[in-house]
Design brief:
It is globular and about 55 Å long. With 306 residues, it is an all-beta fold. It has a 5-stranded antiparallel sheet with strand order 1-24-23-22-21, with no helix packed on it. A 4-stranded antiparallel sheet has the order 2-27-26-25, with no helix packed on it. Strands 3-4-5-6 form a 4-stranded antiparallel sheet, with no helix packed on it. The chain contains 1 helix and 27 strands. Magnesium ion (MG) is lined by residues 81, 125-126, 183-184, 237-238, 276.
Length: 306
């Protein structure tokens, strides 16, 4: 249907990566027309994908049933990362309103976090929900640095932290305060580990471009993280894990697949910088890839973690 897209393909670095691929499956470009595509989330009940087009201040919807793409929400408050909770509700990071919000089943939008310690958040970037209902998000300054992806403003908090929203009380607490620009994050399949990317290199050549791994402690806090991988091409922005614990992460030349210890196994090559990915389809065996102007996908021989 889509043919072979120039600049796409696969790079096998460790032989085990070949087991993740389907011989004849190719990368497809599903749609183009974004300025900076980000934050894909799969909505299983509706069989559609929601993703953000940040500078265009809109969220898009790709429909699996007919392949059409339409505007899901505009204005979107310069939304960035999206995910779904255990009830299938959309949870969204918004730059302009500097908050994390949930879209309820009746369509109402409920603010989950916009302040910490009485100060406005910077610009929530990416978000994940644990099966206990806690919501974890990163809060770098990308949405307040310039007017392109939000509105320029001073940071009230003066730092970029990772936060957890308590499922019972709604209280927002800091779970990591030693990041420069915390960005993508995802749990291991058993949810005992949290991986977090730091894209501090975006504004400092000596800054980090890595993913750290933290143990999640029983009281809902994180152990000190250890760096498991430095990005070999660009930055690790958003990422997701498959059922076997491999990390499928964005990078400048496509999607890098890392083993659970951070070793680079191979790449899905994309001709644009990739910002984020997610698994979708009924069996979560299709990887959706937000690559700057375009939405791509590829079927894999692995399944995303639930
Ligand atoms: Mg991000």
């Amino acid at each position: 249907m889509y043919g072979v897209i120039e600049g796409t393909g696969f790079e096998v670095i460790d032989p085990s990566f070949a087991d993740c691929l389907i011989d004849h499956a190719r990368v497809e470009r599903l749609w183009t027309g974004a300025r900076w595509a980000e934050g894909p989330a799969w909505l299983p009940a509706g069989r559609y994908l929601v993703f953000s087009d940040i500078p265009n201040n809109r969220m898009m919807r790709w429909d699996e049933t007919d392949g059409s793409v339409s505007v899901f929400r505009a204005p979107s408050n310069y939304s960035n990362g999206n995910t779904t909770d255990a009830h299938g509700r959309l949870v969204t990071c918004e730059h302009l309103t500097r908050r994390v919000a949930r879209t309820n089943h009746d369509g109402s939008i409920q603010v989950l976090a916009d302040l910490f310690d009485g100060k406005r958040l910077n610009s929530p970037n990416d978000v994940v929900v644990r099966s206990d209902g806690s919501i974890w998000f990163t809060d770098p300054t990308y949405g307040i640095l310039i007017d392109y992806e939000g509105a320029r403003a001073e940071s009230e908090i003066g730092a970029c932290h990772v936060y957890r929203i308590d499922p019972e009380t709604g209280e927002v607490s800091v779970v990591a305060d030693d990041y420069i620009k915390p960005n993508g994050l995802a749990f291991s399949p058993d949810e005992r580990l949290l991986y977090i990317a730091d894209t501090g290199k975006s504004h400092d050549p000596d800054g980090p471009a890595h993913i750290r791994r933290h143990a999640v402690l029983d009281d809902g806090t994180l152990a000190v993280g250890e760096v498991i991988a430095d990005c070999t091409n660009g930055l690790f922005d958003g990422f997701r894990l498959d059922r076997d614990g491999r990390i499928w992460t964005s990078a400048a030349d496509g999607v890098h697949c890392l083993d659970p210890a951070g070793r680079l196994l191979g790449k899905v090559l994309i001709p644009e910088t990739v910002a984020n990915v997610c698994f979708g389809g009924a069996r979560l065996n299709r990887l959706f890839i937000c690559g700057t102007t375009s939405l791509y996908s590829v079927y894999l021989a692995v399944n995303g973690a639930r």
